[in-house]
Every structure is written in structure tokens, then in C-alpha cells.
Write a structure and sequence with these properties.
Blueprint (H helix, E strand, L loop, with lengths): L2 H15 L4 E6 L2 E5 L4 E5 L8 E4 L2 E5 L4 E3 L8 E11 L3 E7 L4 E7 L2 E11 L6 E2 L20 E3 L15
Antiparallel strand pairs: 1-2, 1-5, 3-10, 4-7, 5-6, 6-12, 7-10, 8-9, 10-11
Length: 168
């Protein structure tokens, strides 16, 4: 492999990995970046295998051309997922030790997770985004609007909203 082909691969790969339609959702106190067709493990939800879930705590949605950032939630944002079942995470070893008093204790822990597959992402004013329609597309540049409750901005301007925390 020559250095020219290595440089070309490094510059092209980030574009190929970009998801055309994705959302950031919150469940179980954690945030997840999800796309249609993706399978993820979330904190235990108590749902049965095969059940369909509607996750309504959608913090952000991007469709390749623009991003909708909720303040704090995207209006009408929904992510539909199917439960595949419950799984357990890797074992974490907890070893307690006190020197000079002959005390040591070894215990383990395995966290329970619910494995889900994302079916589609929808929000107010947009058609549902299914796994088949999630192909990468070219993006158009749009300007940020700071006075609207839901901010529309281009892919690379996440921290450049007027009046934001960066003092711009």
C-alpha cells in the first residue's frame, strides 16, 4: 500500500461513515446517537421481545441537509424501535484490598440491557425515515436561526449559534 492510497482512504472514510438521517435520543438517563436499521443496547426497559417501542425523548434530528436541535426536545420527534430481547453486559470485577490487615474481597457485576433495533425516525413536518431511505446524500448549506425554539443549522456549525455559551 502506497502513501498516496493511504492518504486518499483517510480523507474519504469520514464521508462514507456519515449517517444521512440520525437522531440523538435519551433513555435511561443516557444519550444515544441512532440511525434507522441500527441495533443498540440501552438500559433495561422491561419490554418483551418483539414489542414495538416509541421513544419520544428526541434531543436532535439530522436528515443530511439540516439539523433540528430541540430546546430541550424536538417537537413531535419520535423514534420507533423493536425490542430484540434482554442481554447482559460484560462482567466487571470489583476487587477490594486493604494492606497489612489481610483483607481482600473479589466480586463481579453484570449489567442488564435491552437490545433494540431502530425502525424509523420521524418529527413534526417530515416524513418517517425508514432504514431503506438512510443512504448518504449531499448536504446543502443553511444559515443558523438563533431566535426560533428549534434551531436549524448546517452540519458543521453546532457551536456557532448567536447568543450561545461561546459568546458569539
Amino acid at each position: 500500500m502506497t502513501s498516496e492510497s493511504l492518504d486518499a482512504r483517510i480523507t474519504v472514510e469520514p464521508f462514507l461513515r456519515r449517517k444521512a438521517i440520525y437522531a440523538i435520543i435519551e433513555t435511561g438517563g443516557k444519550q444515544y446517537n441512532v440511525a434507522p436499521g441500527q441495533t443498540i443496547d440501552v438500559g433495561r426497559l422491561g419490554a418483551q421481545a418483539g414489542e414495538t417501542l416509541v421513544l419520544e425523548r428526541v434531543l436532535m434530528v439530522a436528515d443530511g441537509e439540516k439539523k433540528l436541535i430541540g430546546q430541550p426536545m424536538v417537537p413531535g420527534g419520535k423514534v420507533t424501535a423493536t425490542v430484540l430481547g434482554e442481554v447482559r453486559g460484560d462482567k466487571v470485577i470489583v476487587f477490594k484490598y486493604k494492606p497489612k490487615v489481610r483483607y481482600d474481597k473479589k466480586t463481579g457485576h453484570r449489567q442488564h440491557y435491552t437490545r433494540i433495533t431502530i425502525n424509523d425516525i420521524s418529527w413534526e413536518g417530515a416524513a418517517p425515515a425508514s432504514a431503506e431511505a438512510s443512504a448518504p446524500t449531499r448536504r446543502r448549506r443553511t444559515r443558523a436561526k438563533a431566535s426560533v425554539p428549534v434551531v436549524e443549522m448546517e452540519q458543521g456549525e453546532a457551536g456557532k449559534v448567536e447568543g450561545g455559551a461561546d459568546g458569539a
